[in-house]
Amino acid sequence: MIQLFRIFLALFLAGHFAVVLADTLRDPSKYFYEQTLGDLTDDLQDAKDKGKKGVLIFFQQEECPFCHRMKTTIMNQVKVQDYYRERFHILEIDIESNGDIVDFDGNDTTMKKYFEKIARNKGATPVFAFFDLKGKLVVRYTGATSGVKEFLWLADYASNEIYKQMTFSRYKRKMRNQEREGK
User: Fold this and answer.
1) Is the pLDDT of residue 28 over 90?
2) What is the pTM of this model?
3) pLDDT higher for 23 or 117?
């Protein structure tokens, strides 16, 4: 009888954990990025029409372990998806693709060439490029964040225009100090 109870309890807890996990994790390809037809001027207009703060382009490549980590540990979380989608029109661009797009200035280009125009280090991914509602690049962050908290800070940094006052490194230090002080 005790053995049966233990099996039932284990199954119950496993099922409960799966339900909780399902409520907090979602596929970023469905719940993080917006669908695009490749015309960034249209995407910018959508951002304006929906009252967003700007456009975020996630530049990634298939074999990038840091891109994979961001997708599977941070960008798949409901609170992250909701937080970002409330503030930004979010697009994903594969830096190895020669697919055609129209940039924010209305120029025809490819995804690969557009990445080369935006990125500082042409081979480093991921790159999170934040554009204001005029299509101007205002924040560029290369690499994976340390975790969810830092990724949410990046959203605040870009959406609240903190980049006009300080670097992101300085902003992170400020936020960590506030946490330590209990603010």
Assistant:
1) no
2) 0.85
3) 117
- Mean pLDDT, the chain, integer: 89
| DSSP characters over the chain | -HHHHHHHHHHHHHHHHHHHHHHHB--HHHHTSPP--SBHHHHHHHHHHTT-SEEEEEEE-TT-HHHHHHHHHTTTBHHHHHHHHHHEEEEEEETT---EEE-TTS-EEEHHHHHHHH-SSTT---EEEEE-TTS-EEEEEES--SSHHHHHHHHHHHHTTGGGTS-HHHHHHHHHHHHHTT-
Domain residue ranges in the chain: 31-180
pLDDT: which is higher, 24 or 70 = 70
| CATH superfamily of domain region 31-180 | Glutaredoxin (3.40.30.10)
